[in-house]
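Hello forum,

I keep getting stuck at the same step: I have a sequence, I want structure tokens, and every attempt I make locally crashes halfway through. Rather than fight my setup again tonight, could one of you with a working pipeline run this one for me? It's a single chain of 354 residues.
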Amino acid sequence: MHGDLPLMMKAGVLHAINDIRCEAVPTPEPGPGEAIVRVRACGICGSDVARVFETGMYNMPDIPGHEFAGEVAAVGSGVTDVSLGDAVAVIPLVECGECPSCLVGEYSQCDNYDYLGSRSPGGFAEYVKAPAKNLVRLPPSLDAEAGAFTEVMAVALHALRRTGGLRGGERVGVFGAGTVGLLAAQWAKVLGAQSVCCVDVIPSKLELAQRLGVDLCINARASDVSVELSEWTHGKGVQVAIEASGANAALAQAITSASKGGKLVLVGRQEQGVQLEAKTFEAILRRQLNIFGTWAWSRLPKSEWETVLAYASQGAIQTKPLISHRYTITQVQEAFQMIAAGQEPYLKVLFVFP
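Reply #2:
Ran it on my machine without issues. Output:
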């Protein structure tokens, strides 16, 4: 069932590193088992920033963006699970379904995956083609802006679940109060943490963390993190330390703040390489820390995408306060110039489509 699609659409197209432009490109058409989603909101992820300024995409020119939501505008043959007009978020990872990881349901570890916004055209566009099985319906109480957070909400939840989950009563430290960090802090509360601390260097982010219910906020530029956390935990350290910034300093703080036998969750991508002092590395050994890498999300036994949408629809997880900037796709260069300039704090930057 095809909807009425325009022949051309506006998209933010990455032609080369540091060369992204808004231009008219052909609107995609759905094949068997596929749907076309009219994008209403798409977030800029830190990985998108890296693609635009450092790494590029697998095939250029191409369209970045993997945090998006909208409504179904057209469907191809064989599609029965979604209908025209359905409000949806889109899972960007398209697994092969045949490799050893896929056969045991570990889709985020797929050996031969496709990925919207990285390997295939993504959400910096008015329309996106996706497998219909990758569409997740939004609850009626959530709009497309909230839906655009589904992927990053799932990433934050998955990070906490990688530890085996909270039993209740833990002290959790989140190092990096960016979008993932602030969502992880909220999830820690939802999952039963006794108290949550956020560490960052930007006052406005820490102020937001406090408004979101974080118990202790530490400015690492103004305070001694280890001293404050030691006082807060009565010298025991946090049972769960989540490194969500990708900064070497934050990684070191997370390690030295973890309790004996504590859990260290690595979420932030270390773009510049990891450097640790010998005494910091020694803390991993002496305290017998449990280190958890985390990547993407899980879809089995129950999709974390559906879980996060259920909690967000009830107001347990807040996303609106995390939106710092909104741009139209015609302002794609302006949005990335703002990020590159680094002169104003930002959290989640959204492209919104009328």
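The chain is about 30% helix and 25% strand. If your local run keeps crashing, start a new thread with the error log.
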